[in-house]
Amino acid sequence: MKLSPLNIILICFLLISCKSQKKEDTENTNEIEVVPAKEPQKPASDIIIDPIGHGTAIVQWKEKTIYIDPTGGTKAFKGKKLPDLVLITDIHGDHMNIDTLDSLNLSKAEVVVPPAVAEKLPASYTEKLVIINNGETKEIQGISIEAIPMYNLREEALKFHEKGRGNGYVITLGKERIYFSGDTEDIPEMRALKYIDKAFICMNLPYTMTVESAADAVLEFKPVQVYPYHYRGTEGLSDVQKFKEIVSKENPNIEVVQLDWYPN
């Protein structure tokens, strides 16, 4: 069949149009930007932790200021907000320090203690005390505080912390639950904890437990975050990096947070 000049022109036009469209499609495909998937964001916490030293901390939540085992004298708390609550875990000097308590302005504070601590504090503190036993939960200033046992398990360490004397604490602040272990080993009561958002775990020998025992307990009760603290023993500082490696390897969903508990 012989094509007319007009048909030839139309065919050429169609071929050119198809080629142009194909090139345009290719260019558009190349321009597509691949956006990497974002990791889910963890809910922001409105709790601020101020590590004062060793086993001493300040917890700030909204308008509430909580001192945990205040030690270190006036200097350690210079410029800090006055406490609404003071929580003391045990009778030893790195937890209950009467000189430090005497130096602080506790005019608006309630002091939460186990009975053994209450017995050793001067009578001037009696009106401020809220005594709480192992296993009890009390609401103080709108904050739920649960007393968790703290004690030793190893035969050679039983002399340091007997069961029933001291308290660890679970503090509920809004939707978050914070656990301070006090001086303890990896006891069943710790391993049985549920729904802990921030866990402060001791690990120092010979008084409490090894980093391995601490990590094993943490892996069992699975807090959202764990903070090694109270990790100076008679042989220096415990290997908190090893603790982090054990926890992170076995359960990367648990965030290990290292604060500076020994600035000097």
From TrEMBL:
Transmembrane segments: none annotated. It comes from the Bacteria. PROSITE patterns: PROKAR_LIPOPROTEIN. This is MBL fold metallo-hydrolase. It comes from Aquimarina mytili.
